[in-house]
Every structure is written in C-alpha cells, then in structure tokens.
C-alpha cells in the first residue's frame, strides 16, 4: 500500500558539500589561494588514516573544541592543492566518482599523493570493462558511504550536539550525541534550530520534552537520518540477554513463534510513536512515509489474515482512525474498514480476537452507551458517548455485505467465531462487545436463509452439499447450528411449509443420512421441531398460502406427521370458512379446538383424532420395528425404547420423536447480558450494572502499567493505555542453545577453542506418579494454588518432576528409530541442496523438543469424572466432559472417555459392544491422558 520513499541522504550530503559553512562546518583548510571548509565527522570517518596523520594531525586534539570559528589548518604541501582537495572532499561527502573527468595535471598529482601515502584515495574502474563495471563501482561507493556515516554516529566521531531526553524520575536526562550538519541537512526543523537565530544554535544541548520522544524512538529517527532506513531496536529484555545487540544487526535465529509476534508488537509500538515524532519534526514526506512503509511490511500489506496479522491489525485500525484527517492515512483506514467488513472471512479471523474486542469497548464503552445514543433527548456524558464512528461503519458495511449467495458461508463464519470466542473467553467478559455486534448480523442472516430455504436446497443446493459433505468444508455441528437457529428464530407462518419440504424432501432423502447416524439425528430433530411448529400453526400457515408451493408427496407426508387430513390441508381456505357455519361436524374442527399456540412443541394431544399428530406411523429403513410410548412424551420423559428411528424412515412403524435436552449452543449465554434486547426487562438494573462494569474496566485500563521498561512514561494517557491493551508485550526469554551461545561469543569477541557446550540437564525424579495425570489449564492452576489448604481440590494438584537423564536418552533413541523408520536423517543431502523440512533434525532440536514437552506437562492433575476439558491438536476449539476413566477392552493402559459438546466424536460411549458411558451418537471419544487440557473440575464436598 505504501511504497518505499525516496532516499534523501545523498541529496542532503551534496547540499552540505556545496555549502559547508551554511551547514555549520567546523574545520577550515587554508590554502594559499582559497579556504575550504569541512566537517570533522566526515573527515574522521571517510579519510584514510595515513592522510589524516600527514595533513590533519591536529583534529584528534580538537574533539571538544568550543570555538565557533572552528579549527583552522594551514596546508602548504606541494602534494595537495586546493583543486585536488575539493575533488577529494566531494567524494568523501557524496561518493560520486569524478575520476574519468579529471584534468591530466590533477590525475598526475593524485597519483603522486597516493604513492606517497601508500593507499588509494579515489576508486577507479577499468575502462575496458564497459559501463557495467563503472555502475557496480559506483554502487559499492554509495554503500560504503552509508556504512561510514553509520560508523560516524556509532563511534561518535566529531559529534557537536547532544540531544537531551527526559526520564521518568526527572532526575538525570538521557543524552544522545549527534552531528548538527546531518540533522540540519535532513530535517527542516533542525535546520531552523541550528542554522538560524534560534537560541539552540548557540548551545551544545537540544532538549526534546514531548512524550513520544523516547530513547527508542530517538534511536529510530537518528538511524533514519544517518542511513535513510527505518530499523527498530530490539526490546530491552532481548538486548540484555544478547549483550547489546546492534540496531542494524539481524536478530538471533532462536526466537519462537510467540516471541516473533512480540517483536512485531514492539515494532508497531515504536513505529506509531515515531510517526507522531515525524509529524512534530515536519518530516512526513520522508520519515513519515518511511514509517508507514515499515508498518506495511510488518502487517503484510494490511491484507493478510495470518496468526500474527489478526492480532496486529486492531492497533493499526485504532492508529488510522485517530489520524483519519491525515490524507496519507485515509486510504489505510478505508482499506482496513473494507478488510474488517468482509462477513465471510473477517468475522471468523478478525472479530474473534481479544484486541479487536478491547478496541470496540474503547470506542463503544457498553450497551448502555448504545441505548443512550438511540435516545437523542437523553443527556450524554463524555463516557457514554462513542468516541468514534469506526465500529458503526464496520458493522453497517458487514451487514450490507451479507447477500443471498453468501449467507450460508456467513453463518459458517459466525459459527466458527462463536467457537473461538467461547474457547478464549469461557465466562464472557471481554468478548461481550463483539457478541453485541454479532447478534444483529446473526439474526439478519438467519432470517435471510429462512426466507430462501428452498433456494439453498434446489437452485443453489449448498445445504445438500453440506449433507453430502462435498467440498464445502462444513461439519455436522454447523448443520445443527444452522437448522437450530432457522427453526428457533427464522421460522414463520409464511415459510414454515417451505422449510419442512426442504428438510424432508431434499435433506433427509440423501444417501449420506443412511451412513452417518449423527447426521441422521440432526435432521431428525430438525424435522421434529418443524413438525411441532406446523402442528400448532397449520391453519395460519394455510391462510397465508404456505402450502401452495409444496408437492403432493410432501403434503401427504405432512398430513401424516401433524395428524391433519390431506383433504383439509389441500382444499381452498374459503371452504374452511364456510364449514364454520354448516351443521355437519368436522373432525378437523375438534382438532383445531384442542390446538393452541401456547402448547409446547413436543407435547402430544390426548385426543384420539389427533393422536397421530406426534406419533405417526413409519417404517424403519434397517428392518426391526419397535413401538414407543406416547405417554412418555406427554410427561416430558425420554421414551423407553433403546433405539431411535432414522430420519429417512417412512412406513408402518409407530414413531415418537425422542425428547432430547438442548445442547449448549456456541452463542447461547452471550446475548442475554449486554445486548440492547436484554435491557427491555429490567432496564435500570441492566444500565446500572453495565455502567459500573464499564467504569471499572476504564479504571483498570488507566491504572495499567506496562511490564516492559521500554514503554515507561511519565503519565499514561488513555491512548497509551489503549496501545498497551491492543499490543500487550510478552516476556522474551530465548531458548539457550548452541546457536545462542555461539552468537554471544561472536558478539563479545571471545574465542571458541573449548569443547562442545553442555547439554540440557535434568534432575532424577524421586518417584513417578501412581495414577494417570493430565495437563492443567493455567487459569485453573492459579485457582488451585490460591485455594485454602483445607480445600480437597488442592490435593489433586501435582507437579510432575522432569524426566531423568536416562529417560531423555530413551526419548532420543525412540526419536531416532522413528526418524529411521520414516526415512529421515540428520545428515544433509549428499547433493548439497539441503533437505526437506522434516529431514533437517539435530540433537539440539531433540533437547529443545524434550524441554518444551517437559514444561508443558510440568503441571498435571488426575482426571476425574465430570471435569471439563479442551482437546489439544485440533483445528477448532473442541470441549467435552469426562465421563469415564479406566481400562478399556480395545487397547492397553488407562483411557479417558469424553462426551463432546459438538458432533466430532467416534461413538456414543459404546465400543465393540462394551458400553462405558452413554451419550448421543458421534459425541463420544476415547483419548489418552495427554490429549486434552483440564479447564475446570467439579466441586468436591468437604
């Protein structure tokens, strides 16, 4: 989005070379016919040492010269004339090769001077090699110029100004040496300060007191002024580990994925402050554009939805919104709004992140504030007034982007977003603002799907593909999510018949329902729920013409399901009105009298005329016939049958829909605490509670102090607190390996004649655990640690000791056998072309892997029945409850039986004819004790 800015350093140095006195030159070379001014820093960094010893021996003794007229050096040597010195000074400042255009007498004088010094003063190219050699030599000369300028700053050669930055304690300021001619030539702000009548032109110290001029930001600014490139210094904790890393040197290659993300957060923090400093210094066209280009590279062009970018983009969204009046950032803001408004991809990846939820909360503090914005007569204070319209723009654009053709994909994205939010925020706290935004989008999408249900079954048969599992990536859990919301929120009298026909004719009749019991169960429950609605509302549906588009076969099946004669359903509605005034009794009138809109959907009528409304006759597709007891449904008890009929069955077998308690929905429990709809029942209590919660959250954000020393400031403003919340810094502790030690030795200059470094060492455990242990969630671990000694749950906590050295050796041998089995090797390819990602393996990687595994399993707990767990190594968050712990018949060892909340299991608690526990089809799963993390345990009576 932001192109690389033009390099201004060569142009600035050319101005300095042409007007040295204007740019505060401090050394004057006095020849017999002319005076030539130059800068001490350029001479010390660019001149050969032999040249300085012969002609400029006095500049080593004038580093602290305070004379405003500078140092005057008389040059009376026959080897160096004023014309030749001008040519040499021009090369030292600009690195432009002018040797081919030199006069003959100057060429002879240059050769004599080089022979006297024994070194080359000007690089020369062989004319026989053509223009390519000259271009290469010119590029090398410019690269060397930049390196010399950077060395001039790094070694503080000829510095004549000190930049003073305040500290937190306001005692000893931080002093950074610099060169006035570089600052003045690269910045109009410093040019006006040093080269005009400002008071700073007479002093040696410049005070920058604004809050964004931190030492790190000043290092970035100076590095850009001296090299035309933006480079972010590492955070202090990493700098201490690796012993003062150079700002321009690459980082060590031993950072993990989380640490690399932390480095990107650190970079964005510094870049945002640097952008504010560039605006203050009037360098928006140079430094400002370079900072924006660096932000663009850090965030992958603001188009990526990778693991790192989804956590970095909320801070850039806040940054662009705060400076939306800047024309340079208006395009960035529009691009980010477009990216966040994509309902198919943004909701799933971007809206499920905690930084975005905190950003929404900062701009729209609470649902109470949204209620106040709807009431224009109410007095609005500054806290409840939204600070920006950005969230409303994103929400409105997302709502507008939901179309008829992407509605199913939007629901799938919402389903995954709810799952991620539930995984990251078990008890909704920070995710409430996001759930408030998702609620209207979910409702409108469900309404759109419900009104066009036949379109998704016939014209655009994506629901049929969802049932068949053909290339859509949808799961049975998503189909259950979709049908449940359609039948709970979207079904109406006008579309109930269409929904019934789509479920019965297009979905249940697929061959996949015969193979998959869990899919069959989902469709059976949807059919039952739709039938119950039509049983109660069939007369209203008929009056609205809801049965006109249904086929005859569907109408006959509906007649059997709801217990209403086929002729009654199909004859014109006017004849039903006439029958009200006739004297001939109708069985349907008796049925209508017993039907009521307030009847529960699963209650059966005791009337013999409509008894088949719930219990209709069907034939099982797999042979055997069983009868069910209608009384069980009347009393809301599960039926006594051991098996259930299939959804694709039809025929003569009596059928009773089984009562099934509603499973926890991914979005349930979220929409009833902080939404506008929740305020209708008890508005004052809700408003008071949410105001209190919002003010408490605001107070926590204001009192939050950053954990990194690099971001300590005198006063933390609201904007800085928001940056700390959007870009939280993690502690960087690199893994100590041989590469890290070699890097430290290379940085410190120590020799490496010693032997190989010591491997990881582990203490011998006192004794292994007597029972199977499972990893513990960190939040639950903290709760158990804080529990009282009398709490029985605290006794369950155990910290398993690390493996012994012999155990590590056994793991290494096992890893080597597995590598040999799969054809992997530690050796490189004999062709010298490297190897695949799986074949590059070393003993250090073994040690690191074993150490990481040991750390992960260091906190263990005995699994117990009733504990809530989260499965590991799954693409989506998967939760379950432990229902069985013990031996099994199909494998050795201790296995744990889980009842999953989603239909991602393999059984119903029964394996090979042995029942270990009971659950719904495809909700049972047996795993080992290290395949999950315990997130909560049941309360234990004392």
UniProtKB/TrEMBL annotation:
Compositional bias of kind Basic residues: 809-830
Quote the SMART domains the UniProt record gives: BTB, CAP_GLY
InterPro entries cross-referenced by the UniProt entry: BTB/POZ_dom, CAP-Gly_dom_sf, CAP-Gly_domain, SKP1/BTB/POZ_sf
Pfam families registered for this protein in UniProt: BTB (PF00651), CAP_GLY (PF01302)
Comp. bias regions, Low complexity: 775-799, 831-840
Q: Which residues form the CAP-Gly domain?
A: 886-928
Q: Which residues form a coiled coil?
A: none
Q: Where is this region: Disordered?
A: 623-660, 743-843
Stretches with biased composition (Polar residues): 623-634
Looking at the record, the residues that make up the BTB domain are: 25-101, 159-234
Which PANTHER family does the entry mention? SPECKLE-TYPE POZ PROTEIN
Q: What is this protein called?
A: CAP-Gly domain-containing protein
């Amino acid at each position: 989005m932001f192109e690389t800015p033009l390099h201004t350093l060569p142009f600035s140095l050319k101005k300095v070379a042409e007007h040295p006195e204007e740019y505060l030159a401090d050394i004057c070379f006095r020849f017999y016919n002319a005076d030539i001014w130059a800068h001490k820093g350029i001479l010390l960094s660019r001149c050969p040492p032999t040249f300085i010893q012969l002609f400029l021996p006095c500049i080593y003794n004038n580093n602290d010269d305070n004379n405003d007229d500078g140092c005057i050096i008389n040059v009376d040597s026959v080897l160096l004339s004023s014309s030749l010195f001008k040519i040499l000074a021009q090369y030292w400042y600009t690195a432009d090769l002018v040797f081919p255009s030199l006069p003959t007498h100057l060429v002879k004088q240059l050769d004599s001077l080089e022979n006297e010094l024994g070194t080359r003063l000007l690089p020369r190219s062989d004319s026989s090699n053509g223009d390519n050699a000259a271009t290469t030599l010119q590029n090398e000369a410019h690269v060397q110029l930049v390196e010399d300028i950077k060395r001039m700053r790094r070694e503080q050669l000829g510095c004549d100004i000190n930049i003073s930055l305040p500290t937190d304690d306001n005692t000893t300021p931080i002093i950074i040496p610099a060169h006035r001619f570089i600052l003045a030539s690269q910045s109009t702000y410093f040019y006006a300060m040093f080269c005009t009548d400002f008071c700073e032109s007479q002093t040696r110290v410049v005070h920058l007191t604004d809050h964004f001029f931190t030492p790190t930001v000043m290092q970035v600014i100076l590095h850009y002024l001296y090299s035309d490139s933006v480079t972010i210094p590492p955070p202090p904790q990493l700098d201490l580990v690796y012993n003062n890393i150079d700002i321009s040197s690459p980082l060590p290659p031993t950072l993990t994925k989380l640490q690399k993300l932390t480095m990107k957060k650190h970079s964005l923090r510094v870049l945002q402050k640097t952008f504010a400093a560039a605006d203050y210094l009037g360098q928006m066209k140079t430094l400002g554009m370079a900072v924006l280009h660096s932000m663009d590279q850090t965030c992958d062009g603001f188009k990526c939805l990778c693991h790192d970018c989804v956590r970095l983009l909320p801070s850039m969204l806040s940054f662009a919104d705060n400076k939306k009046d800047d024309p340079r950032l208006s395009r960035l803001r529009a691009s980010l709004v477009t990216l966040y408004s994509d309902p198919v991809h943004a909701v799933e990846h971007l809206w499920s992140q905690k930084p975005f939820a905190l950003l929404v909360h900062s701009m729209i503090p609470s649902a109470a504030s949204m209620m106040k914005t709807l009431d224009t007569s109410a007095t609005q204070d500054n806290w409840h007034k939204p600070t920006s319209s950005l969230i409303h723009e994103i929400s409105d654009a997302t709502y507008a982007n939901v179309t008829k053709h992407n509605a199913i994909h939007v629901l799938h994205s919402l389903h995954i977003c709810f799952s991620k939010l539930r995984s990251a925020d078990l008890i909704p706290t920070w995710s409430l603002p996001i759930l408030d935004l998702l609620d209207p989008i979910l409702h409108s999408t469900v309404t759109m799907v419900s009104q066009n249900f036949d379109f998704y079954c016939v014209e655009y048969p994506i629901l049929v593909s969802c049932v068949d599992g053909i290339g859509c990536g949808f799961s049975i859990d998503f189909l259950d999510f979709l049908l449940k919301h359609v039948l709970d929120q979207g079904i109406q009298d006008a579309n109930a018949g269409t929904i019934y026909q789509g479920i019965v004719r297009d979905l249940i009749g697929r061959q996949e329902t015969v193979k998959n019991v869990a899919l069959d169960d989902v469709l059976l429950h949807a059919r039952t729920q739709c039938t119950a609605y039509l049983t109660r509302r069939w007369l209203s549906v008929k009056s609205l013409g809801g049965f006109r588009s249904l086929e005859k076969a569907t109408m006959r099946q509906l007649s059997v399901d709801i217990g209403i004669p086929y002729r009654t359903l199909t004859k014109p509605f006017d004849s039903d009105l006439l029958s009200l005034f006739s004297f001939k009794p109708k069985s349907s009138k008796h049925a209508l009298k017993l039907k009521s809109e307030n009847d529960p959907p699963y209650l059966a009528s005791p009337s013999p005329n409509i008894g088949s409304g719930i219990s209709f006759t069907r034939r099982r597709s797999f042979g055997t016939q069983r009868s069910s007891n209608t009384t069980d449904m009347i009393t809301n008890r599960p039926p006594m049958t051991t098996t259930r009929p299939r959804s694709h069955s039809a025929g003569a077998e009596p059928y009773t829909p089984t009562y099934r308690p509603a499973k926890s929905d991914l979005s349930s429990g979220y929409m009833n605490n902080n939404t506008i709809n929740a305020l209708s029942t008890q508005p004052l209590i809700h408003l008071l509670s949410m105001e209190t919660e919002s003010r408490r959250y605001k107070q926590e954000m204001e009192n939050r102090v950053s954990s990194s020393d690099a971001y300590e400031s005198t006063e933390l403003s609201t904007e800085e607190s928001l940056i700390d919340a959007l870009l939280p810094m993690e502690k960087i502790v690199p893994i100590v390996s041989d590469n890290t030690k070699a890097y430290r030795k290379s940085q410190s200059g120590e020799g490496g004649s010693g032997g190989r470094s010591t491997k990881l060492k582990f203490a011998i455990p006192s004794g292994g655990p007597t029972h199977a242990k499972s990893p513990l969630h960190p939040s639950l671990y903290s709760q158990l640690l804080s529990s009282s000694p009398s709490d029985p749950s605290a006794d369950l906590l155990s910290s398993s000791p690390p493996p012994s050295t012999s155990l590590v050796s056994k793991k290494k041998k096992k890893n080597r056998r597995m590598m040999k089995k799969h054809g992997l090797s530690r050796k490189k390819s004999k062709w010298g072309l490297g190897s695949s990602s799986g074949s590059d393996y070393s003993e250090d990687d073994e040690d690191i892997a074993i150490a990481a595994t040991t750390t992960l399993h260091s906190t263990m707990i005995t699994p117990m029945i009733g504990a809530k767990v989260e499965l590991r190594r799954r693409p989506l968050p998967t939760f379950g409850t432990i229902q069985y712990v013990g031996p099994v018949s199909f494998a050795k060892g201790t296995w744990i039986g889980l009842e999953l909340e989603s239909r991602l299991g393999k059984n119903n608690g029964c394996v090979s004819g042995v029942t270990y526990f009971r659950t719904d089809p495809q909700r049972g799963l047996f795993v080992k004790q290290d395949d999950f993390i315990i997130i909560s345990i049941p309360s234990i009576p004392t």
